[in-house]
Design brief:
Layout: E1 2-3, H1 11-19, E2 24-25, E3 44-46, E4 51-53, E5 59-65, E6 70-74, H2 77-81, H3 86-89, E7 98-102, H4 105-115, H5 120-129, H6 131-141, H7 152-177, H8 183-204
Parallel strand pairs: 1-2
Antiparallel strand pairs: 3-4, 4-5, 5-6, 6-7
Protein name: Transposase DDE domain protein
Organism: Blautia obeum
Domain Transposase DDE: 53-172
Length: 205
């Protein structure tokens, strides 16, 4: 399982993870629906006929697929103009309601099912207590707000060494709580960090 924040909650990422046999755990994201209007979840999708049915029982048929991979479904403006729910549905001048559905939308639906699985909410809460703290430390104390080296290979080297050091620091704290003498361990860690700084200066030369 991969626990990710809202920035990674996309159909493409959900598709790739599930195809690779990895369960994605994404957070809840608030629908971007204008207040007082029907949300997308209130339009029923008919997989067999590949269409949407609105709350007023009108059909939104497939129109086209845009370059971003979203299929567009549109209603009949003439029917919508006489619908009692028009004011809650669309503000378009031609009274046409459009809904988009990504070609990999079913993967997002699977991801939502995973999110609602018992126990996964607690797992996501752990992310804030562990992973987010590590990334915050990396940005503020190890210069990860910007790339400092030239070339992907050098940045991968820095990232690997930095997070190895972060893990060693966590290990030292755990050992200390258990009563271990970690003074020598921390001295070795400082030497490793000093070598990283020297490499950083060399890469800038």
């Amino acid at each position: 399982m991969v626990v990710a924040d809202a920035g990674y909650k996309t159909p493409a990422i959900a598709h790739q993870l599930l195809e690779d046999g990895i369960q994605p755990l994404f957070p809840y994201t608030r629908p971007k629906t204008k207040e007082g209007f029907f949300g997308k979840h209130e339009f029923a999708y008919d997989e067999y006929y590949d269409c949407y049915i609105c709350p007023g029982a009108h059909i939104l048929t497939y129109s086209t697929t845009n370059k971003s991979g979203y299929k567009e479904y549109k209603s009949c403006g003439e029917h919508c103009a006489e619908c009692q729910y028009l004011s809650k549905c669309t503000e378009s001048k031609d009274h046409v309601k459009m809904i988009t559905r990504h070609v990999w939308e079913e993967y997002m639906e699977v991801a939502e099912d995973i999110r609602h699985t018992i126990g996964n909410r607690q797992i996501y809460q752990l992310r804030k207590e562990t992973i987010e703290r590590i990334f915050g430390t990396a940005k503020e104390q190890h210069g990860f707000r910007y790339t400092q080296y030239v070339g992907k290979a050098r940045m991968e080297m820095k990232a690997g060494l930095t997070f190895a050091c972060v893990n060693l620091k966590k290990l030292a704290k755990i050992l200390e709580k258990r009563g271990w003498n970690t003074v020598r361990f921390l001295l070795i860690l400082k030497k490793i960090k000093r070598k990283e700084v020297l490499k950083e200066k060399w890469c800038w030369a």
